[in-house]
Please model this.
Amino acid sequence: MTSVPRRPTVVACLLFLGVAVFSEPLRHLASIAFRAPLVVLHGGVRILAWLPSLPALSEQQAALRRELASHQLELIRLRETIRRLTRAQQLQEAASQPGVVASILGRTVLPTEHVVLVDRGRRDGIAPETVLVDEQGLVGRILQVHETTSTAVLLTDPSSRVAGLVERSRESGLLMGTGGSLIEFVYLDLEADIQIGDRVVTAGLGGSFPTGLAVGTVVRLARDERSASTTAWVSPAVKVRRLEEVLCVPPAASEAEPEH
Model:
């Protein structure tokens, strides 16, 4: 009896097994392919659900930024207050007599006018001829007094006149504002003992300015034989353009009690 070939059956079995084996990964890939959009979609739904809270978060951040800016501004104010208090203490310690600390509110520095406005006035005990100083020396004097402010003429103003003294040699003369950066020191003898680098102070004559306040340093000299005189130019000890606070000291004449 002739046997029937079984090859087709074996091939069919192998095909069945192959399909069974390889179809599982395909099904897995297919499931991922179909699930992936769902995952993305699900994630998208979550993101969309989160989006309504973004405006609230943005507003919260803006509020925090405003609060931070407010705190920073307050910190700047506190630092400025501390600086001014420290400065006031330094001025009081540097002065040989008590006074009232004043802040510069404004200034006019022109060839014809060197004046400042300070934040102290009549209610603070300020009077005309009150002397302004800082730790470097003489600044000027009060010219006009108002209730809460005062106007002061600086040492460099063309109208300023102060009796001066060479600290080293005691030569005396008159210090005159020029409207520029230097002060003119006049009425010195031709042979006056004065030289570049000498320190000039107030002489205390006339009663307005205390004796010995630093005025500046001699930077230039001119001796004129025709007039038999010497003129010196003095660089102020105080840099008026940098002034922020000054000490207001009562005039020297008001310190002494009148004789009976």
